[in-house]
Amino acid sequence: MSCDCDSARADTSRMQKSRSETAFSEEFQRRVKLARHARGYTQKKIAGLLGMEQDKYKQYETRDGTLLPHEHLHLFCELTGASLHWLFTGEGQAPMKLPTEPRAPRHRRAARGARGEEAA
Predict the structure, then answer these.
(1) Residue 24 CB neighbours (<10 A)
(2) N or C: which end of the chain has fewer CB within 10 A?
(3) Tens digit of pLDDT for each residue in 49-61?
(4) pTM score, two decimals?
(5) Within 10 Å of residue 56's Cβ, how many Cβ atoms?
(6) What percent of the chain has pLDDT over 70?
(7) Which listed CATH number (2.60.40.10, 1.10.260.40, 3.90.10.10, 3.20.20.300) goes with 24-94?
(8) Is residue 38 pLDDT above 80, yes or no?
(9) Are residues 73 and 28 in contact, defined by beta-carbon separation less than 8 angstroms?
(10) SS3 letters for the chain?
């Protein structure tokens, strides 16, 4: 009878490990996507910068996909401003959005359009 209990414990332990591995993968993929978005890259653009097709890259951000391979991590972090530590653990500073160029206030843009001027 103790043998049955031991095998049941082993199966439970494997299931728990599987759940924690799944949780890690999902969080890692979520952070990959957040880092890409923070820098304003589309999947197609970041894939090209990493030297792969978009179809290949998108699997690194999907729930049932795979993790970004180690040979791409350094360049990915360089491009997005993410640290490896944050990417793997979520600890520390997440990548910040890059500042965008200031735009004219909405009312000034509307006034230019009403006068027939082209917007810059």
Answers:
(1) 13
(2) N
(3) 999 999 999 999 9
(4) 0.67
(5) 13
(6) 67
(7) 1.10.260.40
(8) yes
(9) no
(10) CHHHHHHHHHHHHHHHHHHHHHHHHHHHHHHHHHHHHHCCCCHHHHHHHHCCCHHHHHCCCCCCCCCCCHHHHHHHHHHHCCCHHHHHHCCCCCCCCCCCCCCCCHHHHHHHHHCCCCCC
* Residue 33: closest CA among 99, 80, 93, 73: 80
Amino acid at 82: A
Residue 94 — very low, low, confident or very high, per pLDDT cuts 50/70/90? confident
pLDDT over 90 at 97, yes or no: no
Q: Are 39 and 98 in contact (CB under 8 A)?
A: yes
